[in-house]
């Protein structure tokens, strides 16, 4: 970071905490869940350039490097096509809306100054800059409970939710007085604080599941609660006592007067709003300080590029609506799930947040690309339904204690390409909702639907699903594996082309369905292709269970199935029962050889693979792997950039023999 004299009352720690390589010993709260943001080093532009500096700037200046502006909002209003605004390191405590457009030939660039790390914070600066005077012990409170010394009467303004339809009724419809209005993070580690719905939960000592999940109290970890009667914020940072949390348990400082915190109150205010503009690029910023509202909201805009952003929190972190040609690259989105946060905490006693949402106002979202990003640590991941031509690739997705990628129900026209990603623990990886009754069309465009290819989807780590009812020192409750394919409300599933993926699990899916559910679940009213995948699990060899006597519109083959424990001793044909059933004969209506004819049960022989999901893994194929040349030829119209590298017959799995694995996440790290 560029060395500057600090002024304006900004403490030295504000800049120090931004160093991503700071030792955990310097963190007084909880060790960071993920890598902290680092400064970018892009070269300076040659065109017109202006500067903003939250420490040394003044909005009456001319915006030069010697006389920078102070606020981001004032600075962005001065820009014209071809201009670059450099944001110097420090914290901009404001909410910002962009008003100026560039052109195709001369876009506007808003970027971090090389080597510095600017932070846009929509929260309250006193809790970060002067925590010692911002809190006082709560009278008649629980042990370790404090209350803010100031009041915030504007927090309860009841703005109408705009982020996502279920966000207004799941679970708050009719109970608006329980909506959490105070959210935040530890400033030194950016680990989230729980947003409590009730004071009773904040003050609770119990951490187990009550006999009735709708009653009783549960301490959900360090967090905040906004008192609508006094307009003050309550906080409690008590240590966990729940057996099994182990290193996830909070063991840090319990006095908030000793810790800088990121705290925001209210509901419905965007931190960064991009509305009705075009040809703008943002690069190298950290964004935080949202409440129950979008942290970044892009509406009615086109040709917007977000690059190397670090986004903490928000409901959602990113909302895209009625926009086209939006690209998000090399960015990290970290949600509201702390290491100790489970689905039951967030869904029933906190903020059941989505991280990415596409809304369905007109014109429809189109030509959206999310690549080389990291999406982690939240309740639900992405509501992708309302988009034409989404490219979602080379991303890292992990630790969502409820829904993963919501791409349904079936639409006639949408095309979503999900490829070259590493997708980890989600309670339901591919999730569908029925929002409107009987909403799905009978017909669809031949090339519409989901194209899911060249992904590694590893669910073995599991998620924190339900609270334990009794002590479980093993921590097994933290590792619920969930579903690969599931739904809410029995919608018609989207058309899916699923090919050349590697799927990893510990235990069988629900009912041990064929192809981890892709070969059996909800084929009514849709169609599905499942070719050339590897299905590997620790327990049994994945089964070939298909219910009913009639086949659905499924085409499948070239899939290799294996169970680490059962496979070497298996002495039966897992496909035998299906091949002697009426369903098998009926399957030839959709795939002439019949289901399972071109599938195998065999050890894929990876370069390095162990039962433990945390162990070193190398999913390349050894030269004697039975997955080599085991696949089926696929239509040329199905995209696959590795087709030419796959010599001979197609190999089964995500990584063809002799091909180097690709990087995912920020800069492919």
Brief descriptors of the model:
669 residues; mainly beta; 21-stranded parallel sheet; 9 helices
Mean pLDDT value? 92
| First-to-last CA distance | 22 Å
**Strand percentage, roughly?**
25-35%
pLDDT < 50 runs, ≥5 residues: 1-24
User: How would you characterize the largest beta sheet?
Assistant: 21 strands, parallel
Instruction: Determine the fraction of residues in helical runs and give it as a percent range.
Output: under 10%
Structural class determined from secondary elements: mainly beta
Number of helices: 9
Shape: globular
- The count of DSSP E runs of length 2 or more, i.e. the number of strands, is 43
Q: What is the alpha-carbon Rg in Å? A: 26 Å
Structure report:
The chain is mainly beta and 669 residues long. It has nine helices and 43 strands. The strands form four sheets. It has a 21-stranded parallel beta sheet that branches. Strands 1-2-5-15-18-21-24-27-29-32-35-37-39 form a 13-stranded parallel beta sheet. The chain is globular and about 75 Å long. 53% of the residues are buried. Mean pLDDT is 92; it is low at 1-24.
Please outline the helices and strands:
Elements: H1 12-16, E1 49-52, H2 72-76, E2 84-87, E3 90-93, E4 96-98, E5 108-112, E6 118-121, H3 126-129, H4 131-134, E7 135-137, E8 145-148, H5 165-169, E9 182-186, E10 192-195, H6 199-203, E11 223-227, E12 232-236, E13 261-265, E14 272-275, E15 278-283, E16 286-288, E17 296-299, E18 302-307, E19 310-312, E20 318-321, E21 324-329, E22 332-334, H7 343-349, E23 356-358, E24 366-371, E25 374-378, E26 382-383, E27 388-393, E28 396-406, E29 415-419, E30 422-423, E31 426-433, E32 449-453, E33 456-458, E34 483-488, E35 496-499, E36 502-505, E37 528-531, E38 534-537, E39 554-557, E40 560-563, H8 576-579, H9 582-587, E41 600-601, E42 606-608, E43 618-621
Parallel strand pairs: 1-2, 2-5, 3-6, 4-14, 5-15, 6-16, 10-11, 14-17, 15-18, 16-19, 17-20, 18-21, 19-22, 20-23, 21-24, 22-25, 23-26, 24-27, 25-28, 26-28, 27-29, 28-30, 28-31, 29-32, 30-33, 31-34, 32-35, 33-36, 35-37, 36-38, 37-39, 38-40, 40-41
Antiparallel strand pairs: 7-8, 8-12, 9-10, 9-13, 11-12, 42-43
